[in-house]
Amino acid sequence: MLLAASTQRTIGLVILAIVFIGGLVYIYFNIRSARDEIGSEIELAANRRPYMDDNELETKRLDLALGSSLVLLTITAITLPLYWLGEPGRHEGRDIDTDRIFTNRGEDIYVNGAQCVSCHGSEGSGGSVSTAITTEDGEFVAQVSWKAPALNTLLSRFTEDEVIHTLNFGRNGVMPAWGAGGGGPLTDQQLEEVVYYIRSIQIDGDAIAAEVDSGVRAGVEAKLRAESDADWAVELRDASDAKDATAWEVTLASRDVFGFDCVERAADSRCIADNDAAKALLEAETAHADALEAAVEAWLADVDAVRDSAYDAALAADASLDNEGNEEEWRFAALDLLSTPGAVEGQDLYLDYGEILFTNTAAAGTHSCARCHTYGWSFDATGPYSLELHGTDEPILDAYTQGGGYFGPNLRGGSTLEQFESATSHADFISKGQTIGATYGRGGSGGNGQMPGFGPNTDSSPVGPTIGNDDEFSYPATLTEAQIDAIVAFERNL
Question: How far apart are CA 416 and CA 120, in angstroms?
Answer without folding.
Answer: 31
